[in-house]
Amino acid sequence: MRALCWNGVNDLAVQTVPDATIVNPRDVVVQVTLSSTCGSDLHFIDGYLPGAAPGDVIGHEFTGRVVEVGPEVSRVRVGDRVVVPSFIACGSCWYCERELYSLCDTTNPHAAAQQPVLGYPTGGIYGYTQPFGGYAGSHAEFIRVPFGDVNCFTVPDAVDDTTALFASDALPTGFMGADLCGITPGDTVAVFGAGAVGLMAAASARLLGAERVIVVDRVPERLEMARTRVGAETIDYSAVDSVQEQLRESTGGRGPDAVVEAVGMEAHGTGAQHVVDRAKQALRLETDRATPLREAVLAVRKAGTVVVLGVYGLTDSFPTGVVLNKGLTLRAAQQHGQRYAPRLLEHLAAGELATSFLATHPMPLEDAVRGYELFKDKSDGCVRAVFAPSGT
User: Which positions fall inside the Alcohol dehydrogenase-like C-terminal domain (predicted)?
Assistant: First the structure.
């Protein structure tokens, strides 16, 4: 089958790889209808996140149709149109029983590679380096889904494929970010980053009752989406002296009640600290350019909540003392998609959330290398490149 493979730093190619097959009796094979780029892919494509191996099939956000099921699969059937969360869950370990699916203790066969850094391993994820399980990814014609009954969610007829696609990762990640804010009526939520996850966090915050949502970014097309598609207020950080001051002024001097950081380790920014971050990252002296993470901690009101959705490595110069002295609540997680998928599919079917506008650049899988170039450079207004293995 054809698939997009990582062959080295900034070296991608669409090539022929072995077919996806049933390995364990609870596996499912899905014919991929659509798959999407994700900002977290860039971290290992650019070489900042180690552990990718030449020939790895990448991609973790997808929807498709079931074409084969293992002998112990009971709920999912051949022909089902499904969406699959990016993290793989077993459904029966201590963490899965508590709906902390991305922390599954069962699905990462390379757990030992993570333990020296994280202490305890995460669950496995499709197409996201060997330390995260080494699973083949979704930028392919077919994909093996372990524990199919736990990880496949049937897409309602009222939800089209493009809309369903983002219920795999961007929407549940953003929704979880809003959920972790603990929003109460009258709250103001600021979202740093107007990529797909940030936009979904902003839309979810509104759905969950935030009175005001303020999105911070620098890309005009994305800020326009935040205003017109989500109904958020916006701040262009490249056009103001201080985002912190802008947020303070717009909230009567108190600051937002919660801030969602949806950017991650390759953030852009301004100021001297950002210049230092860029130099240290280029020299591999640190993994992260963490300007928005630090600004989120500074900008949120006292006793507020900061939710980290962006992917980071080992950040230095983190304002730990600010967290303490302001009495902040700091929350973070990789997405627990299986917890949210049924609810989100209902919201999508009812028209209460919209996602298809994120797919700014649909194209055949054979053009995926160009798609990642557009996505990485944020050129031509690209928010997400979406690949169709069928070519249409």
Answer: 196-266
- Residue range 209-227, pLDDT digits in tens: 999 999 999 999 999 999 9
Mind giving me the DSSP string for 13-49? EEEE-PPP---STT-EEEEEEEEE--TTHHHHHTTSS
As a whole-number percent, the residues of the chain with pLDDT over 70 amount to 93
Taken as a whole, the chain contains a residue count of 392
**Secondary structure of the chain: what % helix, strand, coil (to 5)?**
35, 20, 45
Domain C-terminal end among 312, 332, 352: 332
User: Does the structure show a pLDDT above 90 at 109?
Assistant: yes
Question: Within this chain, do residues 93 and 59 fall inside the same structural domain, yes or no?
Answer: yes
User: Is the per-residue pLDDT at 272 higher than 90?
Assistant: no
Q: Which positions ≥6 away from 164 have C-beta within 8 Å?
A: 63, 81, 83, 155, 345, 348
**How many domains, the chain?**
2
Q: Are residues 183 and 200 in the same domain?
A: yes
